[in-house]
Amino acid sequence: QVQFVESGGGLVQPGGSLRLSCVDSGGLFRLYAMGWYRQAPRKQRELVASISSSGRTVYADSAKGRFIISRDNLVSTLYLDLNSLKPEDTAVYYCNADPEWDNCWGQGTQVTVSS
């Protein structure tokens, strides 16, 4: 059974950076597209960035030029480099397949951008 475990969140000042990681325990990570999603308080979850099995990336407008999604298929890990962070990036960040699998949401990792 696929299980996604996110880590790397924290409290950071505006303009700072973080690297998020997501480990997939399912064993078939290399075969499917993956995405990073986030959910801010009182808002719907949104797709921030995605990467195909071959490495092609797509970003939401809010992430372009600041976030970088990458993957290492050898260790079944997805990454999201968050740069030039803004208070509006504050949210719980999740990874999942793209399109998402309903029963595979993990706990997420909290990112808080505040001075």
Overall shape: it is globular
In the predicted model, the low-confidence regions spanning at least 5 consecutive residues are: none
Q: Kindly, what is the distance between the CA atoms of the first and last residues, rounded to a whole number of angstroms? A: 40 Å
Beta content comes to over 45%
Q: What structural class results from the helix and strand content?
A: mainly beta
Radius of gyration: 13 Å
The helix fraction, in percent, is: under 10%
Using DSSP, what is the number of strands?
10
| Helix-strand sequence | EEEEEEEEEE
Q: What quaternary form is this?
A: single chain
Tally of alpha and pi helices: 0
Strand order of the largest sheet: 2-10-9-4-5-6
What's the pLDDT, averaged over the residues?
95
Query: How can the largest sheet be summarized?
Result: 6 strands, mixed
